[in-house]
């Protein structure tokens, strides 16, 4: 299995608030991307801290993959919340997350916020995750079209993020992967 990662702050932000992790061991591996909330302070701190906690559990945890991802999400959320509550300069910080744990021929994916996972194969590109965002909810309810969502004034408003609420649920997915 080959994995790689690259981040870029883009042309809008002054600071890159992305953090990622990648690990492989034979037919097993893990990848993780956290994107700090750009409108909140210390998004870079939230994403870096979340990656540290989450990746440790993904690699060294002993639970089955879905449970391990859920525990990792809960622990990372607790740590980000604690950090935000004990340091005034970090109050209000948060981050999105998308992570995958691959064992044998199955990818187990969890996400919170609008960081996405895609499955890329000879058959094309398939989005696995669903955004936790205001416009995604509006599209799902039929209030706006996917085309309108692209330019909606609230397109960057997320409805879930790590480090914001004590109770946080991520969406879990699993996907069999074809060789290659």
Question: Topology, please?
Answer:
Blueprint: E1 18-25, E2 28-36, H1 43-60, H2 65-86, E3 95-103, E4 106-112, E5 118-121, E6 124-127, H3 134-140, H4 146-150, E7 171-176
Antiparallel strand pairs: 1-2, 2-3, 3-4, 4-7, 5-6
Please give a structural write-up.
Helix 1 (43-60) packs antiparallel against helix 2. The chain has 180 residues and is of the alpha+beta class. The model has no long low-confidence stretch (mean pLDDT 87). It has helices spanning 43-60, 65-86, 134-140, 146-150, and strands spanning 18-25, 28-36, 95-103, 106-112, 118-121, 124-127, 171-176.
What key attributes describe this structure?
5-stranded antiparallel beta sheet; single chain; 4 helices; two-stranded antiparallel sheet; 7 strands; 180 residues; alpha+beta
How do the strands line up in the largest sheet? 1-2-3-4-7
The fraction of residues in strands falls at 25-35%
Count of separate DSSP helical elements: 4
What gross morphology would you assign?
Answer: globular
- Average pLDDT value? 87
Rounded to the nearest angstrom, the distance between the terminal CA atoms is 8 Å
């Amino acid at each position: 299995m080959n994995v790689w990662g690259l981040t870029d702050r883009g042309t809008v932000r002054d600071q890159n608030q992305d953090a990622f992790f990648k690990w492989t061991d034979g037919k097993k591996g893990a990848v993780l991307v956290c994107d700090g909330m750009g409108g909140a302070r210390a998004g870079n701190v939230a994403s870096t801290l979340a990656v540290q906690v989450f990746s440790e559990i993904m690699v060294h945890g002993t639970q089955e993959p879905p449970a391990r991802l859920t525990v990792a999400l809960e622990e990372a959320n607790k740590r980000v919340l604690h950090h935000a509550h004990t340091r005034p300069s970090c109050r209000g910080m948060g981050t999105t997350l998308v992570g995958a744990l691959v064992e044998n021929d199955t990818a187990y994916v969890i996400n919170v916020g609008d960081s996405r996972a895609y499955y890329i194969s000879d058959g094309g590109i398939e989005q696995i995750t669903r955004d936790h965002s205001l416009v995604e909810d509006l599209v799902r309810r039929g209030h706006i079209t996917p085309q309108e969502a692209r330019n909606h004034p609230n397109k960057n408003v997320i409805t879930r993020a790590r480090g914001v609420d004590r109770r946080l649920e991520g969406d879990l997915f699993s996907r069999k992967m074809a060789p290659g």
